[in-house]
Amino acid sequence: MKRICLIFFVFLGFMASSLYAQERQVTGVVTDALDGTPLPGVTVVVKDTNIGAITDSNGRYEINVPEGGVLLFTFIGMNPEEVEVGDRNIVDVAMTQDIATLQEVIITAGVAGATPRNKLSVTVNQIGAEQLQAIPATSASTALQGKVSGVTVVQASGNPGQQAGIRLRGSTQLMGDQSPLIILDGVMMEGDLADINMDDVENMEVVKGAAASALYGSRAGAGVIVITTRRGGSAAEGTTNIRVRNEYGISSLGREVPINMSHHFALASDWEDYSEFTKYAGVSFPEEYTGGQHPDIAGARAVQFSGYADNPFAFTNNHQERIFQDGTFYTNYVGVAHNAGRTRIFTSFENSANSGIVWNTEGNNRQNFRLNADHWFGENISLAMTSLVSQNRIDVADGRFTDGWGGGQGSAFFDMLFFDPDTDLEQDAPDDYAL
Fold it and tell me: What confidence score (pLDDT) does residue 123 get?
């Protein structure tokens, strides 16, 4: 019995020494691949085991690795690295930065330059050029639509090229101006965002809430939109980048609004004898009257006793079919970025037009010319210039078109809905606006 126990303990000792012989002590240094500096606090583990170590202040580590083991290096802000040890006793690793992680942690330079998000006292959302140009917008005023939570963008009128209303604080504010402060390339902007061409925009940052007043003063009480335009630094040094965009499209009415083709006014007893106009009770028409405006028409229409809108017109017209016509829109854009090292230049030109879909209006036409230049005289002295020349024409019709005929494409839409269906626009419209 004693001999069996002795043999058993000898066997266990042999197995332990055998397992110990299969482990290898591995040391090394973990550095940043960008500048070669040591990385303290890096977690080093043997993959699929609970064996681990952490690098010291000099980036050094020491760990026992079983034969055939694989070391896994992980660190916040760095891409994980896997290294097979093999027969080596020294394993040095250079870790690369995880750019995707850093972009979610750091706010870029527009609002609070390289400040960690959890240290900011305001809520900041950034939209890069790729997001802005995924679905090209006609102007900066509509580019935010559907891209930032909590931001409401409303097109106040149907006129092409007109400024959209932007709300960063919701719809609960009753008094005062609710428009956010616009900062374009570091300058408070007094103009219209509808004048800014989205092809020139590098990124947009949105600061929501009254806390933005801590950064920009009382004018930022309704929030801030910070816009940074492209510059010559977008091209690699010693190169020139040329960007061209041409867009053409056709616009039309998506669907017609259902209109009631009857009325609630009392009809004359002989109204069925007339097909050129609807004869109402209480209204006298001149002899040989065939419709349209006439100075000899007297009296007024009276609502029938029941009040129901169930009386027919003598004839009906589809005004929406006549007033809304297919329109076209196009954009021609060219941008040139040149990087000569100390001198960097970006210039662009845009020609954009949108005819709209309302008859007898010219819509919107816009031309933009931009020149951004930067020159470095030394490491600490530089000169920067930002310039924009913009011409934006919007057809909202003249004064003759405001008395019951509309005041632009948006007004024409609503006014048209209240025209009686038996109105003949070809006959009743003034001569200058005949269809």
Answer: 67
The string of pLDDT tens digits covering residues 168-199 is 765 555 555 677 888 888 888 876 777 788 88
pTM flag (> 0.90) = no
Which ranges of the chain have pLDDT less than 50?
Answer: 1-21, 102-109, 398-408, 432-435
Is-contact 286 296, C-beta < 8 A?
Answer: yes
Angle at 429 between CA 289 and CA 158, to 5 degrees: 145
Identify which of 124, 118, 177, 171 has the alpha carbon closest to the alpha carbon of residue 148: 124
Q: Which residues contact 390 (CB under 8 A, 6 or more apart)?
A: 191, 195, 196, 366, 367, 368, 369
**If you average pLDDT over every residue of the chain, what do you get?**
78
Show the tokens assigned to 349: 């030109």
HEC per residue, the chain: CHHHHHHHHHHHHHHHHHHHHHEEEEEEEEEECCCCCECCCCEEEECCCCCEEECCCCCEEEEEEECCCEEEEECCCECCEEEECCCCCECCEEECECHHHHHHHEECHHHHCCEEHHHCCCEEEEEEHHHHHHCCCCCHHHHCCCCCCCCEEECCCCCCCCCCEEECCCCCCCCCCCCCEEEECCEECCCCHHHCCHHHEEEEEEEECHHHHHHHCHHHCCCEEEEEECCHHHCCCCCEEEEEEEEEEEECCCCCCCCCCEECECECCCHHHCCCCCCECCEECCCCCCCCCCCCCEECCCECCCCCCCEECCCCCCHHHHHECCEEEEEEEEEEEEECCCEEEEEEEEEEEECCCECCCCCEEEEEEEEEEEEECCCCCEEEEEEEEEEEEECCCCHHHCCCCCCCHHHHHHHHCCCCCCCCHHHHCCHHHCC
